[in-house]
Amino acid sequence: MTRVTGHVFVYNVWGCIIAAAVAAYPFCLRAARSAIAGVDPALEQAARTMACPTGESPYRSHFACSTRDRRGLTIGCARALGEYGATLMIGGDINGRTRTMSLAILDSFTTPSGTRCC
């Protein structure tokens, strides 16, 4: 990846962001697919009859009526905030640089010797 973009993503904040986004993407995609499938086709036809261009009618009818998209986005954000597996592999646990909330919580339950305290 460094050869393609010229940037180093390992042990970097941007690497942590990309890892969290990749981990959360399936949750957002699943919710978006079910939300688009759940919109009534009659609404799309109604948008076409009200002089809405053919290319715009799916966007206007689907995004206006689907609350599941917002739920999927919320689930995806929560998953990204709670992600520590991919973040730990890509970004490490560098205090003050790549430490995330979930890694800080994980570290608070671990003693310096590496054994669990609870």
| Quaternary organization | single chain
Tell me what portion of residues adopts beta-strand conformation: under 5%
Distance between the ends: 39 Å
The number of distinct helices, counting runs of at least 4 residues, comes to: 7
Radius of gyration: 21 Å
The pLDDT mean sits at: 76
Q: Which parts are unreliable, with pLDDT below 50 for 5 consecutive residues or more?
A: none
Largest sheet, strands/sense/barrel: none
| SSE series | HHHHHHH
Set out the fold topology.
Blueprint: H1 2-5, H2 13-37, H3 41-49, H4 57-65, H5 68-82, H6 85-91, H7 101-108
Helix pairs in contact: 2-5, 2-6, 3-4
Short summary of the structure?
The protein has 118 residues and is mainly α.
Task: Describe the structure using short key phrases.
single chain; 118 residues; elongated; mainly alpha; 7 helices
Characterization of this structure:
The two termini are 39 Å apart. Helix 2 (13-37) packs antiparallel against helix 5 and helix 3 (41-49) packs across helix 4. The protein has helices at 2-5, 13-37, 41-49, 57-65, 68-82, 85-91, 101-108. It has seven helices and no strands.
